């Protein structure tokens, strides 16, 4: 069994506050890829945060779309997880790319879940990746996998930007393989080896994901055995231990 790249969901968020540089660095140093959530502020700056508000993971309140970058950066994004992380900040997209460039070692090391599509964001993302040599090791999904038009727009931003189409079920797999603007498939069911082979035969790579995979170690291992290129996990350390055991 070839070992897939393990994708740490929002960084190593079992141990560190999610979507922070501390969580990203910890995951990257273990050889994992990281999954991040990208959205825009009121002043059209890109930050890394899952929720549309700062309420859950900071000491502040408010919707990100109504806050400036300076207001977001003033918040403590670590104390909610533990006092030892007090002073941790919500990272910008650019700061996150710098961390990936410095600490990432996996062939594919960054998975971007787009939460919003703000003016100019496609150019900012493609240019930021290109300037760091990260286009070939990054995959986009989120709003990207939901819309062929968005995938087309990213292709226009850079033909080297790797988009993912989506297959929620085996019945959706042929359509995902045939997508003209995708080179990856974001798979949200437990794939068989035949499914993975069909994707590979169509020159597509596979992200094994979805609740049935991300929350179940046995299904993570089954995805690896089926030949998935990457597996997204809520428990990357436990998964790595199973793979290496």
Automatic annotation (TrEMBL):
<dbReference type="GO" id="GO:0008081">
    <property type="term" value="F:phosphoric diester hydrolase activity"/>
</dbReference>
<feature type="domain" description="GP-PDE">
    <location>
        <begin position="4"/>
        <end position="243"/>
    </location>
</feature>
<dbReference type="Pfam" id="PF03009">
    <property type="entry name" value="GDPD"/>
</dbReference>
<dbReference type="InterPro" id="IPR030395">
    <property type="entry name" value="GP_PDE_dom"/>
</dbReference>
<dbReference type="InterPro" id="IPR017946">
    <property type="entry name" value="PLC-like_Pdiesterase_TIM-brl"/>
</dbReference>
<protein>
    <recommendedName>
        <fullName>GP-PDE domain-containing protein</fullName>
    </recommendedName>
</protein>
<dbReference type="GO" id="GO:0006629">
    <property type="term" value="P:lipid metabolic process"/>
</dbReference>
